[in-house]
Amino acid sequence: MAAPVAAEGAVVSAFRSVMMRVQHAAERSNSQLDRIRVVAVSKTKPVSMIRQLYDAGHRCFGENYVQEIVEKAPQLPQDIEWHFIGHLQSNKAKTLLGGVPHLAMVEGVDNQKVANHLDRVVSTLRRNPLKILVQVNTSGEASKSGIDPSNCVELAKHVKSCCPNLVFSGLMTIGRPDYTSTPENFQIEMGSTNVRIGSTIFGPREYTKKQE
Fold first, then answer.
1. Which of 155, 159, 185, 198 is found 20 to 30 A from 17 (Cα to Cα)?
2. How far is CA 51 from CA 57, 195, 203, in A?
3. Helix (H, G, I), strand (E, B) or coil at 39
4. pTM to 2 decimals?
5. What pLDDT is recorded for position 190?
6. For residue 31, what are the CA distances in angstroms to 22, 24, 28, 120, 174?
């Protein structure tokens, strides 16, 4: 039993270190710290580790897989601000929103089909409007999801004008792994207000089974 406790203690320590880095970055860029949301990405991690960070005061968590978030969310307090950060298939929208009634945001909307499905499911479930971020593929990598930058304004307009049950809340992008070529994609000082941090907080991910 000693090993899990030590690991979870390390999670809180790592989170505090991350928050100090965020604070310093905000100070360097003259940004308001309270406008920067840190999403603790807990994919593949047990509920006990999430609870440890929750008990330390953090409330915003992100998950990549529909199956995983619908299993975890009912086991944790309802005031957690859950973000779905994976690539969402339109046929999974009902499962996601039905399984996580208090889902706060879907960060990876990159086409009208997914936006329309989410809008209909929110309406059917009669839940509060759902915040979404439009994902933009700024790096041009085929391995990454996201709409082409030239089409992101059109998608944002579609969400705002045709999806009354969704709340357009901004753009989301992921930079190239080689950050030296485009360092602006990785610097909070560039104006990021929603920052995902995963393994830096929770440690290396453990993929024990195929995720959906």
1. 185
2. 10, 20, 15
3. strand
4. 0.85
5. 64
6. 10, 10, 8, 36, 21
